[in-house]
């Protein structure tokens, strides 16, 4: 991504920390002065008229999967497929435009509605082109026989546990929790990250935490080099299941050790404890994937047994029973959650989640009231990437069609914005402000903050700056 990086830049007529009509001077990537009538010398190389808009710290997406999100942009979506017949039509139409041997990659299949097909069923749809389908949770891939031939020829019988077999020992085509193994097996090249970087910039996002448990040193190098080159301009923190080392200075920050819990096959408790201990030895915090009450209970038991540090995180907190809130508070854990799911999947939750558990979905207000650190994120590509949509959903708790889900968990718009302004490892407990001396990672809005908070929308982002570079411009005028 090509970005402007003048030695000096002056933003004038901006609302900063609630005060209108201010100027802000950027030099060498940092905020050097804020005032009412700055007269910098030498004259700035670029002046930008904010037109009265609010100038905010750049937003942070505290939980995203960058490579998976970039790959999804080049995939066929099955998000709106509601039957196997519709899936068959979608695949057949897409397969007509493929070159011989070209993969068809499908994502976001709702297996609750459509069911879980196997290779034989996919073969009846398309048998000549290799196909792989991912479910909407990201936990499952399904391949047809043509696709499985790539695995058979390369791996033989040396397959991981997640590669499903039937009672006769034959491959079913279903592969559970083995995305990185599959990618390595198929020798898939890294996806293009430039489009994703541009999209995040247009949303005002200046930093991200990639929460992938499968991040290897090699993958971290791909992401780090994309950041250093400007292709992915957002500052990077990377989680992983194992040890990580930055590939070069400024490429990425090493984040938490990720533990992926799956209620169907929970990790051994002693192994969980060993992971926590090794993380401490590396000076890292621990982030635990918890989307069910059982997973959350297991997570809390582990932290109670092996110890929790400030900055340890519960990822998602999709279901948090009321009785789990006091132990979360006692242990000092943060919750990094995604209210955007209530908008995107709310109708499914209302139809499928037990009514007595619906008040436990993506809690917010009840956590904030107990002073539990809470931060928001997208979980893209599995959730909507738009932070402004997530903020809006946190304030109204409405599904896409306007049905409410536990309105008592609503929070004010200003507090929702703070959930994207925290600095890890403490997330929203320490919301950033625009201050002299800090890095010039900024989000300029087209209107004052009070107006923007009354209409939380991505369309109000006028410009985004990362380290003083203009990485997105919409409606701000150089002068």
Automatic annotation (TrEMBL):
Domain Amidohydrolase span(s) in chain numbering: 48-472
Keyword Nucleotidyltransferase: no
Domain of life of the organism encoding this protein: Bacteria
Pfam families: Amidohydro_3
Keyword field contains Hydrolase: yes
Molecular function GO terms recorded: hydrolase activity, acting on carbon-nitrogen (but not peptide) bonds
Gene3D superfamilies: 3.10.310.70, Metal-dependent hydrolases (3.20.20.140), Urease, subunit C, domain 1 (2.30.40.10)
Keyword terms of this UniProt record: Hydrolase
Protein name: Amidohydrolase
Origin species: Henriciella mobilis
